[in-house]
Amino acid sequence: MSVGPPVLRLEVEATDGPARAGVVHTPRGSFLTPVFMPVGTRGTIRAIGVDDLERLGAPVVLANTYHLMLRPGDDTVAALGGLHGFMDWSGHVLTDSGGYQVFSLGPKVTDEGAEFRSTYDGSRHTLTPESAVAIQQRLGADIQMVLDVCPSLPAPLEVVRAAVDRTAAWAARARAAHLPARLDGRTGQALFGIVQGGVDVALRRESAERTVALGFDGFGIGGLSVGEERAEMLPALAAALALLPPDQPRYLMGVGDPVSMVEAIALGVDMFDCVLPTRLARHGTILTAAGRINLRNQRFATDPEPLDPDCACPVCARWSRGYLRHLLQVQEVSAQRFCTIHNLHWLLRLVERTRTAIVAGELAALRTEVASHWR
Q1: Of the residues 242, 274, 306, which one is the last residue of a structural domain?
Q2: How many separate domains does the chain show?
Q3: 0.90 exceeded by the pTM?
Q4: Is 128 within a domain?
Q5: Strands 250-252 and 124-127, how do they pair?
Q6: Which member of 16, 96, 200, 308 is catalytic?
Q7: What is the domain extent for residue 288?
């Protein structure tokens, strides 16, 4: 089934086994895959500005529907030009449906939707598949996600089964709500379905089949990296990927640790998002080619080396570990900015390296390298 006139197209340029290097084309332009999307929860990446993000070369950012619908409100964002005008951002924007945040609050869930209290003022709200579509249309993202049910793991089989069934039912409703604006040209937004199923391989396959049958522009794989071991995650991921169309983007939601990303790319994933690099940075944990380091450690107090001697980011080009540690210790706000710039640069470059390795047919060597430093 079709979701209406195509607004998004994946062009696969090279493969290395299941891994793909491609280009996603949208009405706004195009971006290369594999791609990592920094998380701009409230319309900004914490601790840095849009100008920093532009210099980092991030082609896509993720914004959070739950937070933006509450503060400042999706109508306010729409009045200020949608997220692109609101942020003054010319790159691509993907919005999640808000489901992950809502379900973390223990909402009252029915077949109709999820009722929850705002974390800001305690006010009551209900999010449905239809309202999630409408809110994301007002936010003006290039790619929006359907509302899904994301259980934390481990979870009883009946809980995961219920999540699969309700996610499929809600996906059909989201597709129906999205289609009228798509058909009459009022929106050029792409709509991605989401595959659930926990770590149960059979449920992952079933969810993938049901989601594909509805017809979407791309597919998110949700409900992973939510408490399970990587050894459990990868087989469930592979089971879903095997049934997703090869000519559409595949987005592993909420995964950003280097080993999991590289292993997922090897299985055929194209897109990622995660708060990991920015959250770690704000607490002084630094990503490097040799693994993560805790910059607050006393041993870095007089260290003249850059954060990562192999890194070409503007922070590593200018300041020492000792100086940056000092900024952290005295709680200078610039410390969070510098560490965030480095961590995002490092992870964006890692993903670029995977693309180069796929084109060269050398992804296996990169997998070995990353695994050796990020056990």
Answers
A1: 274
A2: 2
A3: yes
A4: yes
A5: unpaired
A6: 96
A7: 275-375
Q: State the angle between helix axes of 258-267 and 333-360 in degrees (0 to 180), rounded to the nearest 10.
A: 30
The candidate with the shortest Cα–Cα distance to 197, out of 170, 156, 230, 161, is 161
239, 274, 309 — which closes off a domain? 274
- Pairwise CA distance, residues 34 & 22, whole Å: 7
Helix ranges (H only) for 57-156 are 65-70, 74-79, 82-87, 99-103, 129-139
Residue with tokens 């410390």: 335
Burial class (CB in 10 A: 0-12, 13-18, 19+), 6: exposed
Shared-domain flag, residues 176 and 227 = yes
> Is residue 273 annotated as part of the catalytic site, yes or no?
yes
* Residue position matching structure tokens 């249309």: 137
Instruction: Give pLDDT tens digits along the chain (375 positions).
Output: 556 778 999 999 999 999 999 999 999 999 999 999 999 999 999 999 999 999 999 999 999 999 999 999 999 999 999 999 999 999 999 999 988 888 888 899 999 999 999 999 999 999 999 999 999 999 999 999 999 999 888 999 999 999 999 999 999 999 999 999 998 888 899 999 999 999 999 999 999 999 999 999 999 999 999 989 999 999 999 999 999 999 999 999 999 999 999 999 999 999 999 999 999 999 999 999 999 999 999 999 999 999 999 999 999 999 999 999 999 999 999 999 999 999 999 999 999 999 999 999 999 999 999 999 997
Distance of CA 239 to the CA centre of its chain: 20
